[in-house]
Amino acid sequence: MSLPNIKFNISKNGLGLLQADIQKIPGLVLTGVTVAGVNKVTTGNSYQIFSLEEAENLGIEETGTNAFAHKQIKAFYGEAKKGAELWFMLVTQATTMEAMADLSNVFAKKLLSDSQGKIRIIGFVKKAGTTETIVDGLDEDVKLAVIKAQALCEDFASRYYNVRSIISGNKFNGNVASLKDYTTTDFNKVAILLANTDGSNEASVGLALGRMASIPTQRKISRVKDGAVEPLNAYFTNGAKVETLDTAWDAIDNKAYIFLRSFANRSGYYFTGDKTLTKVNDDFNSLARGLVMDEAVLIAYDTLVEELSDEVPVTPAGNIHPAIVKGWQNAIDRQLKGLMVDTGKLSGAKSYIDENQNVLISNNTDVDLQLLPVGYSDFITVKIGFTTNLE
């Protein structure tokens, strides 16, 4: 028996503080080589950097064996600016994008795990060779990588490592009709980029990731107010300028590909959108919508995981006590409002827990969470004409 005393149990949640903001941090798996020496880059290893200079210090230099990787990382920091967090992994030239994304390999899987859930959008880009087989208008590797990337994202999401993917549409053959129509598929966590800024056979995935990292979760990379991503030139991955297919831009977009476009009387080039490879009526046919949902899921998870396996008081009827219902609802609503509604990522959010749940029998509590997203002015229709009278 201890001496009489006064004990204080100090609450850690009295202020109702918000969780840390969930950042849209990108990851990138791309072609490169090991550099000899201490503290130099090694293929298959994960790296976290915050500037182009850090990549260069690892041996990823503008000229030489890692010039390809340097180009992609430079494009990222050209858009996201110094200080932006980037996780990346170099893989050998023999490694396909399909292999990069495959869950059975230690490439993307390792990078995502090493980031401990930080990465929210992961890019894949392989330096093109000379012997690729063209299928559906692109290097066959692209089509195969899409399948693996979707499986990768679904697997990690099941463990609350929510992530989306963008793949380089290598070696477009220039034939729009031959491109696969991805609006007939269900790869709603994956996008394909068909464009670059230098006329090469690979897409500017680093540039796209840089734009994504520099804008809020709900914002599309095609938002004109954010400015052009390239001032002078834009190409498809067949090496032709995007203007050579300007009459087919709608057709390419209608098949759910992302590329670069220009606007009349406005300089520079802009992304066409952020479409994913899925049906037009899929709620997640946009990377932005998917990233918003991922953030909301993680906020709700972080709020409710504190309650897991806790004792739940019940009413005489065996149902969950109203006080518990109110407390959980308030906690979720407060976090979503502060982190997403007040910041413009959502238009509104509301949670609901039915009090008539017999937790004594089921040991389960159902929570309904409704999210009201923001809209997008992707199309603007103007009615215009002369008149003899202004009323």
Descriptive report:
27% of the residues lie in helices and 16% in strands. Strands 2-3-1-4-7-9 form a 6-stranded mixed beta sheet, sandwiched between helices. The chain has a two-stranded antiparallel ribbon with strand order 5-6. A two-stranded antiparallel ribbon has the order 8-14. It has helices at residues 52-57, 67-80, 97-101, 108-114, 140-157, 205-213, 249-254, 287-304, 322-341, 359-362, and strands at 25-31, 47-49, 86-91, 119-125, 134-135, 138-139, 164-168, 186-187, 190-193, 195-196, 235-236, 260-263, 266-271, 277-278, 348-352, 368-372. The model has no long low-confidence stretch (mean pLDDT 92). The longest helix has 20 residues, at 322-341. It is of the alpha/beta class and 391 residues long.
* Strand order in the sheet with the most strands: 2-3-1-4-7-9
Shape: globular
N-to-C CA distance: 90 Å
Mean model confidence by pLDDT: 92
Main sheet makeup: 6 strands, mixed
- Determine the number of helices (DSSP H or I, runs of at least 4 residues): 10
Q: pLDDT below 50 for ≥5 consecutive residues: which ranges?
A: none
Q: Which band does the percent of strand residues land in?
A: 15-25%
Which structural class is indicated by helix and strand composition? alpha/beta
**How much helicity do the residues have?**
25-40%
Number of strands: 16
SSE string, helices as H and strands as E: EEHHEHHEEEHEEEEHEHEEEHHEHE
Give the C-alpha Rg. Answer: 24 Å
